[in-house]
Amino acid sequence: MDRKKSVALAVSIFTLVIILSGCANQLPPGGGEPDKTPPEIVEAYPPSGTTNFKDDYFYFDFSEYVDKRSFRDAIFISPAIEGQMEFSWTGKSVEIYFPEKFKDSITYVVTIGTDVEDLNNRNKMAQSYNLIFSTGDKIDTRVISGKVFNTKPEGIMIYAYKLKDAQENVFKRKPDYISQTGSDGTYSLKGLAKGFYRIFAVQDALKDFEFQPEQDKIGIPPFDVELTDTDTLRSGLNFFVSTVDTVKPRLLSATMTDKNHILISVSEEFDSTIITSLNFAIVDSTSDSVYLPRHAYKGNTKSTEMVLTTSDDLKEENNIYLFVKRLTDKNKNETLNDYSKITVSTKPDTLPSKLFKADPPAFNSTSDIDNQQFVFSFDDAFDSNLVKQAIELTDSMKTLYSYTIKFLDDATFSITSQKSLSPKKNYQIKINLKNLKDPAGNFRDSIYTYNFRTISGFDFTGLSGSLKNAVLSLNPVLVIASTTNPKAIYRTKPDSLFNFSFERVEAGNYKLICFYDEDKNERYSFGWPYPFGFSERFYFYPDPIDLKPRWTLTDVVFELK
């Protein structure tokens, strides 16, 4: 091999080694604990707070190598600039150049969001980073901060719109200022000019700075914020993020499973208030006849289905339609006067009604001694008057107890003892199924026996205290919610002296929340994006509360701030 070829080969090998060494430096070390340290910005140009900035670029230096694409997707500039930014990377550093000159005498905020990932282990930044500079001799220092309370609060976009009009639909334009929540859900909008602001928390699926209800979740603010020369800081603007359902339900189909039953299918889950026979009518357009259903019930159907019964002989050859006066979904979207053609069947019904669910389950030992509801759900309707004669509630000594029966629909009822039951005692509910005749007259000639045992009644806990800084005219409601049992939720209201008390609470770990039920609908209202409606203000007690059995926690001071 001649000298020139030898030198060329040596240079090529040396170059390859350097390249491979550089790549190797970006790989995680072998063995040991995985890297969980989030990347950080350790240096930036210009320094945050710079005034009279004249350059056309800025610069960031990270603590480790980061994924370039994640950085490009996580950089936001407020107010927005025209054109596309250019990125120049050198190792762990990046320079960003602008296609257009910055406007004069404007405060700009460059936000690096929490979606930036390190190259090795995809760790994300723990908090967003703000670089604030001004092209004039003054810099805006106004700040709005708060927290998003969500199952996964990290990376939710915060959009701030400077209001031109309180009735404006701000979603027709891009936000004026942008930030992003950190791993704990906190956020901070900095460098804001004075003015009125409407802030939203948006789980923006496409990161296109637009709220699209079909795919994005949103947190609606409980109030707008005004920032002035003297009022420059607003904290505690907190959000719950939820889905906004704007689609009205529709009646999809009505199919007879036999001559007595019509299975109804709706486009989405519906509110239980529509389950009444008075809400429906059966119209035979061939014979010009109108029939009213006998019963309506949920039964053992899918979440978007329910059942009607009829005793009228409907003819397969006729054109027969089901009309519904009102369809309401879980989010109160409503459709009036919908209809569907009925697929008619003349097949006889030969099966009697069957119990498919009891709540609490049979043979449980957790039934309360006071006001325990026992709910029995059947797969077919029956005469409610006959059911009342078919039930007995007794203890182990066969002592009869008076009870209250409540019909949730035409195939489901609940039973509640009218007096307190004894603790740690066995009880029975007997139902004579012979009285539960379905619309075709079918019944079971047997007695169903439901056994249960009561709790001791001494293991309950409680919580009492007082509210501070509350406004009684705004109707405050207090809630404690178990961190482990989704069904363990208790509500109360403070008295005129701001004192509150929770009694007969299951022991466990709880979160304490207060919200202003301003619309007095007995539940938290999330607000509405457009036409705009504020959400209700809420506050979290700062620490979880551990409630131990047989012990009431007292003197809790809950300061609303």
Discrete helix count: 3
Structural class, by secondary structure, is mainly beta
How would you describe the shape?
globular
For the largest sheet, list the strands in their spatial order: 21-20-24-25-18-19-23-22
User: What is the strand tally?
Assistant: 41
Rg of Cα set:
33 Å
Task: Provide the CATH architecture of the largest domain.
Answer: Sandwich
Task: Kindly give the count of domains.
Answer: 4
Poorly predicted ranges: 1-28
How much of the residues is beta strand, in percent? 35-45%
Helix content: under 10%
Largest sheet: 8 strands, mixed
Mean pLDDT: 92
What's the CATH C level of the largest domain? Mainly Beta
Briefly note the CATH topology name of the largest domain: Immunoglobulin-like
Q: For the terminal residues, how far apart are their CA atoms?
A: 81 Å
3D architecture notes:
With 561 residues, this protein is mostly beta strands. The protein has four domains: 41-243, Sandwich (Immunoglobulin-like), CATH 2.60.40.1220; 266-343, Immunoglobulin-like (Sandwich); 355-454, Immunoglobulin-like; 461-559, Immunoglobulin-like. The protein contains three helices and 41 strands. The chain has an eight-stranded mixed beta sheet with strand order 21-20-24-25-18-19-23-22, with no helix packed on it. Strands 9, 10, 12, 13, 14 and 17 form a six-stranded antiparallel beta sheet that branches. Strands 35, 36, 38, 39 and 40 form a five-stranded antiparallel beta sheet that branches. Strand 22 (295-297) and strand 23 (305-309) form a beta hairpin. It is globular and about 90 Å long. Mean pLDDT is 92; it is low at 1-28.
